[in-house]
Amino acid sequence: MVKMDKADTRMKNRPYRSLEGSLKYVATGTRPDIAYAVCQLSRHLEFLHKEHRNAAIRVLRYLKTTQSKGICFEEVLGNLQLSAYTDADWASNKWNRRSISEVFVMINGAPVIFKSNMQQSVALSTAEAEYMTLSLCVQEVLWTRSLLKEMQVQINYAVTIHEDNQTAIAIAKNDNYQIRAKHIDIRYYFVREQVKDKIIDLQYTETKSQLAVF
Fold it and tell me: Which top-rank group of organisms is this from (predicted)?
């Protein structure tokens, strides 16, 4: 979608904001397959044009024709398995060159957290964008572990996080790696600490097998 610097006055009374909010609710609750599209739609709340509204309607039509899709939680046999996938779309925003973070947290193969968010700062490399996303993913994993603990479910193993960037994995495991940018440096120590404490286990997964690609 093309970004505009002025709103189309003809769209003033069109319910785009409420439509985008409704789609976001669906994406957050049961349809991770539209998360990326909704993320893109949310960028045009201020300068709305007809093509943005048409794009939102296309998402609605897609939902209508795929009503049978959703998240299926099967019966748990044995121990509960918590895992996660993380990926970044580096510098994908043509107007500010910010990257998109994509995170999937799963319990027994079913997604319980799925996010597609624009990063708050510009990443200077693919590895940097991936590492910023990895930090977000680790935070979501820790939150899920804490929630499960309150439900009397203990996770006594390192949670596997699937990452398709080997440089980002190497950074997390290298005590001697130095990062000058403070906003990245803080994330570096945070992730490395979780790896060192065996809270998480980073596993390389090829992009074609990466579930966090929306």
Answer: Eukaryota
